Automatic annotation (TrEMBL):
Name this protein carries in UniProt: IL9 protein
Gene Ontology CC annotations of this record: extracellular space
Leader sequence segment: 1-20
Keywords: Signal
Signal as UniProt keyword: yes
């Protein structure tokens, strides 16, 4: 009886660790991103001026998506007054995925590398497309 319980417990722990390594939060990230894309206050031109909620955000190079998504959502939190609860959840999800290396499907560089910056909408669309590709 004790040996079977031990083997069951070990198997359960192994299963949970495999699930944790492959967790990417795909559905929740797509849901949060869609909610933000529906927020019309976020659609404005990319401006380099300080204090503008219409900041330019990094459009990541392949393999650097996660750190750029962390950086971009953090910047959005600092400059955007609307959609704070959704932005907070999105930022925290990206930060946890980066810190814990939970998403094996998404290559992960440690630094945000990008060649271009875009509007909030372009940034959110990049997140949406990245995670929709993983959802297939």
């Amino acid at each position: 009886m004790t040996a079977s319980m031990l083997s069951y417990t070990l198997f359960s722990c192994l299963l949970l660790s495999v699930q944790a390594e492959s967790y990417c939060g795909v559905r929740e990230i797509i849901r949060y991103t869609n909610r933000l894309l529906d927020d019309s206050s976020l659609s404005c031109p990319c401006r380099q001026t300080a204090g503008s909620s219409c900041s330019c955000l990094p459009i990541p190079e392949p393999g650097h998506e996660l750190p750029c998504f962390v950086e971009g959502t953090k910047h959005m939190l600092e400059t955007n007054v609307s959609s704070k609860p959704v932005l907070t959840r999105l930022y925290q999800t990206f930060q946890a995925l980066l810190d814990r290396n939970l998403c094996e499907s998404l290559p992960r560089g440690d630094q945000c590398q990008y060649k271009t910056k875009g509007t909030v909408i372009e940034f959110l669309v990049k997140i949406q497309r990245t995670y929709q590709a993983m959802n297939k």
